[in-house]
Amino acid sequence: MRRESYEISTCPVCGSRDAREIASQDDVREEVEALWAFHTRRLRPDTPPARLTDRVAFSQAPPLRVVRCTCGTVYRNPRERAHELLELYGGDAPEPAVLEGLLAAQRPAYDAQAERLTIVAGKPGTGLEVGSYVGGFLAAAADRGWRFAGLDVNPHVNAFARTHGFRVADGDLAAADPEPPVDAVAIWNCLDQLPEPRAALTQASRLVRPGGTLAVRVPNAAFYAGVREHLAGPLAAVARLLLAHNNLLSFPYRQAFTAASLGRLFDETGFEVVERYDDALVPTADEWTRHWAAVEEAIVKQAVRVAGRLGREGAWLELYGKRRR
Ligand SMILES: [Zn+2]
Hints:
Structural class: alpha/beta
Bound molecules: zinc ion
Strand content: 15-25%
């Protein structure tokens, strides 16, 4: 058993202590149980236990308590101490076959993200991806003419990425020092796990050239907070579906942002927001998913994406910014 050590936290965006509890310890326990029940129903009975565990046991243990700041940011309070996070993410050593599967499965989503980044940037150039993991985005970016390097705290996964020819370094943002500065920094599905998101974007602003692009993808705090309010009411079944299919049930993150709170972080670290994209979680159905469940997943995610196009909050949020000159 891993024993976590915790500390009382303040809002990672605005520093305020003025937050309201949105999920108590009992609420979180109920969300974890609902998540197990959700996946158990949707997977084939012969699914290996390890593949079920992948879906429910996230790298981070469930939160003790989740709060929402007046600025919109949702975060764990208390939270796990920062040094534990590095041990958590640096230590995983999944099988090469599992990593190979992830690389292939993530490719279509990363193609779309690389496309959006290229449109915002105007043309391909040099870049740095923080949290590059198996290299799915590095591959998609290279196909569009970008010269991206990756950065990840997990040396096992980096070794795998290098076997595919990707340029990746071991470490976190504090260790990055590209000279000259790059045309773009991308932080996909990672700022939500970092111990100090403000410090991360401050560092990003030193790495991107003036006029260069910052791309960030995070879980949407407005979606989580708004939908989880219905977990106890007549719409509970729909709320559970929306949260579970978007990997938000039980809040397996350190923090989540709204467009406004992430925009504030962009602004205060030297980036002007130029584009917002509301999305659903990338597809997750695989060979162990029952057919009806794969269809359900596709419908739920398409509905969330369409709602996003119509101006509603997406479950996942991308913000693109330009570094001020
Ligand atoms: Zn705040």
